[in-house]
Structure formats: structure tokens, C-alpha cells
Amino acid sequence: MHELSMAQGIINTVLETSEANDATEVKKVVVEIGKLAMINPEQLLFMMNVLVEDTIMEDAKIEIVDIPVEIECAECGHKGNGKVDEEDHYVPMIECPKCESNALRILNGQDIIVKSIEIEKPDD
Ligand SMILES: [Zn+2]
């Protein structure tokens, strides 16, 4: 269950950061998910909403943002969004949209990032 460990990892990161900043409550969290991260956003969101119970991010609004796949083509030098074949969920095929080469360097779209955290502090 990939999404479960990922959800727990994100929550741990958010809680650690928030507690380090003396937060009393986490109000909003934005999580970026790359298209190649092999994560089902709905499942991730569901699990996060379960796992935040009884933490300071219990009432936080969790926003998930999809990140497109960015590539640099070794054949023609094209830089930009890669063409992703999403038929196969295990190993997505990525092609250069210009010359259809598979010789690519992936610049973006593989990571899961906690983009921003909004917290409430005692003084606010
Ligand atoms: Zn190309």
C-alpha cells in the first residue's frame, strides 16, 4: 500500500515543520504530486484525512496539485511537457511530443512535494 506510507510521510513532514514553528493548528496544506510518482491522488487524500485525526492538522484543508511531466529530449532537444501513455499504470511510457523519441531526461513529475503549509500560531 504505497499511498498509505506516502500519506504518513507527508503528515509527519507537515507536523514536524508545524511544531517546529510553534503552530497550534495547521490550516492548509498543499501537496504536489508528479504524474510519474505512481500515486493515486484520491486514495492519498482519503488516507491523509484518516491519519490526521487527533493531530493539530485534523481540520486542515488538504489540497492536491498535479504536476505534469517535463522532459528534455536527447534526440531533438525539445524541452517541455512529455507525452505520457497512461494506459499502463505500472510503467508509464513517456515520449517526446515532437520526435517520439524515448531518449529523455525527466526534469519534473516524479516527486511528491509538500509545497506549502499554513499554520495558526498562539499570537495570531
Ligand atoms: Zn525529441
Describe this structure in words.
The protein is α+β, with helices and mostly antiparallel strands and 124 residues long. 24% of the residues lie in helices and 35% in strands. It contains 2 helices and 8 strands, in the order H-E-H-E-E-E-E-E-E-E. The mean pLDDT is 92. The protein binds zinc ion. The site of zinc ion has 8 residues, from loops.
What is the strand and helix layout of this fold?
Layout (H helix, E strand, L loop, with lengths): L1 H19 L4 E10 L6 H11 L9 E7 L2 E4 L5 E3 L1 E3 L7 E3 L8 E5 L3 E9 L4
Zinc ion (ZN) binds next to loops.
Sum up the structure in keywords.
binds zinc ion, 2 domains, 124 residues, hypothetical protein PF0899 fold, three-stranded antiparallel sheet
